């Protein structure tokens, strides 16, 4: 069907009924729109991979409507994890822990762990609660493409592959959740996201170990080198912004975290006040707008890698094809090694 309907109480209950019947339902979370199926219905979960054209080696996040439901998914909840759940759930934080045998291999890509989070969006929480089961849900877009922040984005990417799309308006955070792996008493950052690492470290009173040395299969979504990519070639600009005012930018659009006076209508200002929350909120929508405007190339001006800036730069690097620099008065594009 691929039908887009407003996320009224009646329609949320309809979505829950469809989920219980093994259908696919797209729904808003505070981060991006998700494409959901009941976690234990393996055929329904397989349809997620088919609809998104997602490789089966990329594990899914399972969403719950209450902390108590993690007992269906994790073998145990260590005290350190409970501290994070009490403080950051519901919210954009995903935890990866050893799974129970009730979680099908297709959800975890055969791994012994499962990623779980409790979203902070009333539509998502009601949908999962009314369904009665945890819901496996990656972002509701074609694999590798820009994540959807509006119901229209889901329809554009997936069309009739989705049985129902609940329209809850534009998502509020705009980038996906932070993902942490808890292993042998330590927390490892698998993906920066909507919760700043610094806030987690402050709560725990210790450092999060940045992702290094994880060879082999992806341990969580969003760990591939190329992801979130628009169909427009995107490059991260290296150098002083003033240099761009002196080169030919014909056909090139610029994504900027602050106002720029010398680009006219070819600049997408993501925040008038250089507010990283606003930059994150508008980032994916701007990448999709680049496609609609048929830009030949796009440049992204980087932000400091602290707080939410870490997640923003993670998305930009994975969405980009390389970097751009001004050399001898000309703009030079350097492709990254894939």
Automatic annotation (TrEMBL):
It comes from the Bacteria. Its EC number is 2.7.7.87. It is an enzyme of class 2 (transferase). Keywords: ATP-binding, Cytoplasm, Nucleotide-binding, Nucleotidyltransferase, Transferase, tRNA processing. This is Threonylcarbamoyl-AMP synthase. InterPro entries: DHBP_synth_RibB-like_a/b_dom (IPR017945), Sua5-like_dom (IPR006070), Sua5/YwlC_C (IPR038385), Sua5_C (IPR005145), T(6)A37_SUA5 (IPR010923), TC-AMP_synthase_SUA5 (IPR050156). It catalyses: L-threonine + hydrogencarbonate + ATP = L-threonylcarbamoyladenylate + diphosphate + H2O. Its main location: cytoplasm. Residues 9-195 form the YrdC-like domain. Belongs to the SUA5 family. One of its GO terms (molecular function) is L-threonylcarbamoyladenylate synthase. It is found in: Cytoplasm. Required for the formation of a threonylcarbamoyl group on adenosine at position 37 (t(6)A37) in tRNAs that read codons beginning with adenine.
